[in-house]
Amino acid sequence: LENGGENHKKATVSWRSSIPMVDILVCLAQLRVNQDEPMEDYPLKVEGGKEDDSSSGTRRFGMGQTTKDQMRTNVINEIISTERDYIKHLKDICEGYIKQCRKRADMFTEEQLKTIFGNIEDIYRCQKKFVKALEKKFNKDHPHLSEVGSCFLEYQTEFQIYSEYCNNHPNACMELSRLTKVNKYVYFFEACRLLQKMIDISLDGFLLTPVQKICKYPLQLAELLKYTNPQHRDFKDVEAALNAMKNVARLINERKRRLENIDKIAQWQSSIEDWEGEDVLVRSSELIYSGELTKISHPQAKSQQRMFFLFDHQLVCCKKDLLRRDILYYKSRINMDDMEILDVEDGKDKDFNISVKNAFKLHCRDTEEVHLFCAKKPEQKQRWLKAFESERRQVQLDQETGFSITEVQKKQAMLNASKQHHTGKPKAVTRPYYDFLMRQKHPTLPTTLPQQQVFMLAEPKRKPSNFWQNISRLTPFRK
Asked: Where are the compositionally biased (Basic and acidic residues) regions (predicted)?
């Protein structure tokens, strides 16, 4: 290790620089409960060689247990054993790789290690506490009586740390791909693996495990609930735990989607001419809706045709160039946190003393300032009113879930957009790395695939982000 792994050059190096990634939104995993197929799928034989047609819930297995109890025992054992294996896996990464990498300051900076391994050490500490909680609830004499549902409920908030890891994972893959173009890093990582006596999988394969693990919890809990009688003391907790872990997975998916959007928002802003004031990302991370509206201003009820972009917390106003309609100029913005939306009936408006149609107002509660807008068609007006409702819901949800974007992420997004803009690249927003995660958000799954092999993490299906549809209507992105 001190020679960058040179002593292991003769060792067979099996390096796979880009193994298939697991879609955060749809995880394909098969839960094995210590047997290839459920025993209940096979009829029991009775005297005379005839099959017993009784239901699986009344069949007896072993010492007075029903088949359902035995299946629950198998699932419980599966959960406990996989947790122990996972802890060993995390320990190997932290002690076998991170510890050795920190000894080689000539090869790795602390920033590089943070990029490669993310917050996996935090996950390791969390999982050690979680597995201890599971073992306390494990009934060794009668595993099917174990009450593990409460453990998942207790740790559901802590499991949200997986969000940071999953969001960082594409960056880890890119950094590893860059480093392993140099042989000394390939030999070093292989030496780490051999010294820790880990199985023959490359580092990027090991780092994929936490992503897979958070996907597997809902699968395991769904299987456990399947074999838990409603009268069982653990039934309600398992049912609640399943919903809780689905919510954790949805939260991770949503945060990943939002973080991918900030690059697009930064690139959008870089395409707007004469931008003034703070960046959009200082307060916003989601484009809710966009379109053309007629804005009517005091004191002479002057009307102006403008393009409006509704983000969370703010409404940005832009003007099209008179000659080149593919160019947008920044004009102003409205703080949505101070506004209330008022539906305006067709006819004469008393505040502006003019006749309006398909109109609505934004009224500032603090300053009593009023903004009047008119859409071309009634359906366009309704879409805007619904968009304003969505914006408020999004803000409230972010407050409840604690979603935020770090200053580092904001600055990096703006820096990347600035570099792309100044190097003369097209202004069209390019998709980030890990693009297939966005494309395969809701793929069509084969009906022949068994239910226990497929689990939709994002349930119920959410509509795809309308960011690209909104942006695609703007001609600046068609160059």
From this structure: 42-53
